[in-house]
Amino acid sequence: MAEVEKEAADPNLWGNPENSQRVMRERKRLEDALATDKDLSRRTDDITAYFDLAKEGEDITADLRREMDQLRDIVEKLETETLLSGDSDRLSAIVTIHPGAGGTESQDWAEMLLRMYLRWAERQGFETTVNDYQPGEEAGLKSVTITVAGQDAYGLLTSEIGVHRLVRISPFDQAKRRHTSFASVFVSPEIDESIEVIVKPDDIRTDTYRSGGKGGQHVNTTDSAVRITHFPTGIVVSCQNERSQHKNRERAMKILRSKIYEYELEKKRAASQKVEDSKLDIDFGSQIRSYVLHPYRMVKDHRTKFEVGDPDRVLDGDLKGFIRAYLLMRRSESKGGDSAQSA
């Protein structure tokens, strides 16, 4: 903490915006850790005091149960943080959602997933920015890219990479028939200045166009939106949420560098096939998670077998159980791999 405070006190710190943001993020992380430590100490003292009152005949059942539940939530959150050990887990995340085949049904489902992640980010205290939003023809969206800014955002959201399946009575079907829809979610770490990714000018093509969809009338008056294509990887990124073409290009380049970095990470992980297996066709049999609203109500993760009987709560952003179950599974698989290599 002393080293971070020394950096924060440096008068030259603010001359480098990216470095100053890194220092302030680290300072906040350490301050949060200290506050959590004090909170844990206080809560354990309170629980001890409740047990002393119980010995004297006081009825403290309700208060003790409340304290124990709150303490359990804190411990589970801390345990989840210990599961984030990857090189990029601490970074912010760039999330892209695409609907599968099915037109309006799938596009509406993609919109529901966007809302779920925005609500989840709000619960976590993360900041979100919609970088590119392509609306659907009747409802929903054709594609969206958002940035989720906050400590551990990428590590937590790696659990969401893959195909998500929805089963419901369609609000767009006058016959009220049951429909199955699919949408894919991809997540990349938002790299900072400590990670160098070189993008050669000859390797990209930049196109400008008039912004559309959400964002207000001011973004629709000029060709301010930017689309960048990276030829070696085939990665295409867009940004349209800023007024100026220059700012949109700057933001799009940052997203491109992050996606190229994730692309290279995927190549290194290809031997295990974990990432490739999560990028199957957006169709039947490839989903990582199913959200069933009819004929019964349940959300089930097909990798971890974790399930919840209240899909409304999940769609409102309560992903804690799914994320924790995935990270525990990832750690278990990692240990298994380490043991096999040792053998």
UniProtKB/TrEMBL annotation:
Q: Is the Oxidoreductase keyword given for this protein?
A: no
Q: Spell out the subcellular localization from the entry.
A: Cytoplasm
Provide the residue span(s) of the region labelled Disordered.
Answer: 1-25
Q: Could you tell me one molecular function GO term of this UniProt entry? A: translation release factor activity, codon specific
Q: What keywords sit in the KW lines?
A: Cytoplasm, Methylation, Protein biosynthesis
Note the PROSITE patterns from the entry.
RF_PROK_I (PS00745)
Give start-end of the signal peptide. Answer: none
SMART domains in the cross-refs: PCRF
> Which Pfam family, just one, is annotated for this protein?
RF-1
Post-translational modification N5-methylglutamine, affected residues: Q217
InterPro entries, from UniProt? Answer: PCRF, Pep_chain_release_fac_I, Pep_chain_release_fac_I_sf, PrfB
GO CC, sorted alphabetically, is:
cytoplasm
Mod. after translation? Methylated by PrmC. Methylation increases the termination efficiency of RF2.
Residue ranges of every copy of the Prokaryotic-type class I peptide chain release factors domain listed in the record: 210-226
- Similarity-based family: Belongs to the prokaryotic/mitochondrial release factor family.
Physiological role: Peptide chain release factor 2 directs the termination of translation in response to the peptide chain termination codons UGA and UAA.
Full protein name:
Peptide chain release factor 2
| Lineage, opening ranks | Bacteria, Pseudomonadati, Acidobacteriota, Terriglobia, Terriglobales
Q: Which gene encodes it?
A: prfB
